[in-house]
Amino acid sequence: MKSETSSATCISIRLIGGLRVERAGRVMTAATLGSPKARQVLEILALQPGISVSRERMIELLWGGNPPATARATLESYVSVIRRHIQPGQAKTGPLRTEHGCYFLEPKLVSVDLDRFERLVGRVDGTKPAEAYERLLKVLDMATAPLLSDELTVEWAEEARRRHEALVVDCRIRAAQAAVAVGNNDDAVHWAQRAVASEPLNERAWTALVAGLEQSGRYTEALQAYDRYRTSLRRDLGCSPGDELQAAHSRLLRQTSSGEADLAELLSALLCLNEHVKQRAGGRPAGPRIPGLDVADHITAGSVIGSFLDKALAAA
């Protein structure tokens, strides 16, 4: 005799993008799964398959702390609607279960894209850069749309979207870092730029972007990226980039002062250096020796300016 679980039909649920449920070849969407709150019952449970949600908690999530007097009965009607759609004829043995006053989705009968996404992310840890990069590309291929895009106004969905987007940004940064490690610098720049677009003050994202540009030999662009981040950070948070980015900045200034840089690169380096000097000097006019500016800054300034003058004389 077959067990209840083995005789039930499995379903596939997509939460990344619009809601989509597939059962035995039939596809259901947000528009065909009943009222908004009915489908939200399924979405809330699908965010964590196997985790029980009490009736009280479900009511709180659905009505935002202001439930109607009939909330309990209405919730039961929503659950019945969803069961008719996703497990017809299997009220007790289908994916949506009720136990001790709680609802949950039986994980053996449900495949959720968000759950697969998070599991794949976990498998990246501890792998070598080439393998990590391949896995991250597969992960990011799943995250091409916002989570729960059918639910734009409810608080619980917005919280879930924020958590998911933060994880996606982290994966983009890790993909950029892995791409630099394997020498795929163009991809590194691409993923870092995507991360920066999502989180403009994320220092890890800017560090990955500067690294990708530097490894590509795009020193002027790297300096410009650093300066954009430094300016935003100073304006919005009143602080400066961390040690790793500042070290990259100093290294880039030295690289652009070498014989391989053209005059445009040197001029860009001088402009960035001027901003750095003004910041460190508190806006005071820059003289031959600026109080508060360390020796390395003066060496870098002298190197860049000297090289620039040599180039200018040679060009003349």
From TrEMBL:
DNA-binding residue intervals: 2-107
Family per record: Belongs to the AfsR/DnrI/RedD regulatory family.
Key words of the record: DNA-binding, Transcription, Transcription regulation
Record's protein name: OmpR/PhoB-type domain-containing protein
SMART domains: BTAD, Trans_reg_C
Pfam families: BTAD, Trans_reg_C
Gene3D superfamilies reported for this sequence: Tetratricopeptide repeat domain, Winged helix-like DNA-binding domain superfamily/Winged helix DNA-binding domain
Domain of life of the source: Bacteria
